[in-house]
Design a protein that fits this description.
It contains 13 helices and 5 strands. The chain has about 270 residues and is mainly alpha-helical. The strands form 2 sheets. The chain has a 3-stranded antiparallel β-sheet, with no helix packed on it. Strands 1-2 form a two-stranded antiparallel ribbon. The chain is rod-shaped. The termini are far apart.
């Protein structure tokens, strides 16, 4: 029988169904098998054998999920696991989720695992910068303090403009931040402050790349002729023609009357016999 292994987003250790049956992987004495209700477990692993455990996590870091507590608290094992797959940090002990060396390796491999770092390290600028440089959306898991730090937020929106969503209100109202964000991803305008969604320079910047962003621009600015032209509209098409004033109307009427009254008319000839 051909043995296959399918990895999925985040949980590469989880097995998917195919044609009604479970696929599994067998390498050496590592066996993943299904249990009731789709759960999986490791069988034939000697967790007391450090060499065997290291070999296991070097092949699949998220196998750490099935490790006993003493293994998930072993720094060497966890380091190897997060080097192979950053998501392994989810299964590290609380103590090691507060270990800067381990967390740095984890977020450099996958920035989103900042979610599993301790509160202390979510407030560590070095760790957070490493995470958002790998994935700007990791800003979501930074501390409130760092989501209000301009250096941090700038790095995040440079990586992914949509990270503006997780910036503080103060920085969502910072023109440098918002311009950087919309240049990276014009749809980030959705997360700018109301004031900056009414900023003409920012609006024109977004329209250069995506005309649909006209919907995110303030209603007031949507009436601006430069904005309408940038969005591909002809501002004159839907405008009502100028109405002439009363003096113009009377003047035109007088001219018409004069033209028609002054025109010579043929007089009928009358034959009158005397």
């Amino acid at each position: 029988m051909e043995i296959m292994y399918l990895s999925t987003f985040r949980t590469s250790h989880k097995i998917r169904k195919s044609s009604g049956s479970f696929l599994f992987r067998q390498e050496s004495n590592i066996l993943l098998v299904n249990k009731t209700q789709g759960e999986f477990y490791m069988e034939n692993i000697n967790w007391n054998d450090k060499e065997e455990v290291l070999k296991l996590v070097q092949q699949d870091g998220t196998a750490l999920e099935y490790a006993p507590e003493e293994v998930s608290n072993n720094k060497e094992v966890v380091l190897n696991a997060v080097q192979q797959d950053g998501w392994a940090l989810e299964y590290a002990s609380e103590e090691l989720c507060n270990d800067k060396d381990i967390v740095l390796i984890g977020v450099q491999q996958n920035g989103m695992v900042l979610e599993f770092a301790s509160n202390e390290l979510q407030n560590d600028k070095d760790v957070v910068l490493a995470a958002i440089q790998q994935n700007g959306w990791a800003l979501e898991y930074a501390s409130k303090k760092l989501r209000n730090d301009k250096d941090v937020v700038m790095a995040a929106v440079q990586n992914d403009g949509m990270a503006l969503k997780f910036a503080s209100e103060r920085l969502q109202n910072d023109k440098d931040i918002v311009l950087t964000a919309v240049r990276q991803n014009e749809m980030a305008l959705d997360f700018a402050s109301e004031k900056l969604r009414n900023d003409k320079e920012i609006a024109l910047t977004t329209l250069q790349n995506n005309l649909d962003t006209i919907l995110s621009i303030s209603s007031k600015l949507q009436q601006d002729q430069d904005i309408q032209k940038a969005a591909g509209f002809n501002p004159d098409i839907n405008q009502e023609p100028d109405k002439p004033d009363i003096d113009t109307v009377l003047g035109d009427a007088k001219k018409w009357c004069q033209e028609h009254n002054d025109a010579p008319t043929a007089q009928p000839k009358l034959n009158i016999e005397r």
